[in-house]
Design a protein that fits this description.
mainly alpha
Length: about 110
């Protein structure tokens, strides 16, 4: 009996990562599919959601346009650093980082 339980636990530990990865296939979507989903969301957004998104984009552009050269250089360096960091991440690390960013965004709101 102990051997069967040990075998079951070992098999579970061995196959668990593959099962979890199969359940969440979002990391497997191509850039084209992700952009299509984004465009569909934008197309189906309510007028209030569209206005809020437009206002957010305008505020961001205005904030960046009003930066001093030093602030802009710092912003660009941070942006480049983040892009490099993201390009080196695995799919699981990217998912975790995205979840953390969404949680921070919810806390700020």
């Amino acid at each position: 009996m102990k051997k069967i339980i040990a075998l079951a636990i070992t098999a579970t530990l061995f196959f668990a990562p593959a099962i979890l990865k199969a359940q969440d296939s979002t990391h497997k979507k191509s850039k084209v599919e992700r952009m299509k989903n984004f465009k569909d969301k934008a197309k189906n957004a309510t007028p209030e959601q569209k206005a809020k998104a437009k206002e957010f984009a305008e505020k961001r552009k205005e904030r960046i346009a009003n930066m001093t050269p030093e602030e802009k250089a710092k912003h660009d360096a941070k942006k480049k650093e983040m892009q490099e960091k993201l390009s080196k991440m695995t799919a699981e690390e990217k998912e975790k980082a995205i979840k953390e960013m969404k949680e921070r965004k919810k806390r700020k709101a």
